[in-house]
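Sequence in, structure out. Go.
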Amino acid sequence: MPCITAEALSGTAPLVASASALFGGVHVLSHIRSHQTMRGGTRAQHVADSLATHPGTPHRLRIRGGAERVAMVGSARFSVCSHHTKRCIVALKYPEEEPPRSLIASDLSWRTLDVVQGHTLRWLVAVFMEDWQSPEGWAQLTKQPGAEGARHSVILRLRVDHRLCVHPDQPHQLQNNLPAYTVGSLRAHVHVECLVDVIDALVSSDDPQDTLKRFTKAFHEVFVFGRSTKHMIQRQLGRLEPTPALKYRAHEVMRNMPVMST
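Output:
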């Protein structure tokens, strides 16, 4: 493991030190908050103030080993007061971003561009976290609401993920160290395979019309219409009208109410 890429909340001194020690002193890359204080010589200033005066120079970066982008990159070695040690502070700004990102690197022997290249891999961590929070889109395919639905969505995600790992086209990719096929593309491929199998069964059957009718009936039994909860038709809304026996009380209250001056 060449380095650890962490989120902004993990940029504190204890977490950086413990994460590095946990993996044998590996390099840790993280964000640093703009209001943190760093010291260069006898002068102390906030990270944001230092980055504003040293915007950096343009460099071409390869994002996650793929496409290249131009970004403004600048760096310096400063002592971070809250960390009680010296860190490599990196300013990274893409054309559409404002203000620049502020990064820290625990290993001062890394080059600035190598630090930035390692930071681009953090996107993979974010994708994993997002996939886990929304069970890779399977959450929307389970119909149970509430806590039960949440459990069912996770169970469905794990089961389907395991099945897709043994998809006939997937082992070839994994065994040959090639990029695995995405869950979305495999799902689409399985949908097409199922559609082709249904058409083949209809065409090959002895009585295509009867087979189509039975398939259509089963299809409508599974995929039923959902009733909108936004419309108030056929709802018990109560009386929503005055009660005759209470009219005299309302009249008495209004008659005895003092007149408000304007």
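Check: The CA atoms of residues 13 and 79 lie 12 Å apart. The beta strands are 3-5, 27-31, 37-40, 43-46, 57-62, 68-80, 85-93, 101-105.
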